Sequence to fold (154 residues):
Amino acid sequence: MKALTIALFLVIMSAQSTVAQQAAADQEIIELSKEKWQWMADKNVEVLDSLLHEKSVFVHMGGSWGKQRELDVIKSGGIWYKKAEVYSVTVNIIGNTAILLNDIDLEAVVGGNTVTNPFMVTEVYIKEDGEWKMGSLTFSRLLRPVKMNGDNNP
Fold:
């Protein structure tokens, strides 16, 4: 009976440790995503360059492209990710891959015009050599109305 009690205790402790590690990994990805929105707003392409995987892809309403074009678009101001208001975040980690979903309103300047759109943004991160790298960023426009104050709907 004593051995069974000890075994049960170890299983419970192991499960709690796993849950705590999962929560910490989820929080790490959430914080990284939050920082990424700020780096994009600040047009900080140097930091973004280190975050983005060399093979990363970006899907926008107007097209899709790779890392270098995304950095060039941000640097030139072709798209200025002015402000992302995040309403909900979910994270699913599968092995060394994290999939994050953000329900956001994005205020952006595109081609000189300020627009605000509701998006579900899918971010995919891959952990390589102990470091998270963004592999994909996809904007899917939502049918819900913009929640952000001072919206500029197209």
Notes: The two ends are 69 Å apart (CA to CA). The chain has one domain: 2-141. The beta strands are 52-60, 63-66, 79-94, 97-110, 113-128, 131-141. The chain is about 35% helix and 45% strand.
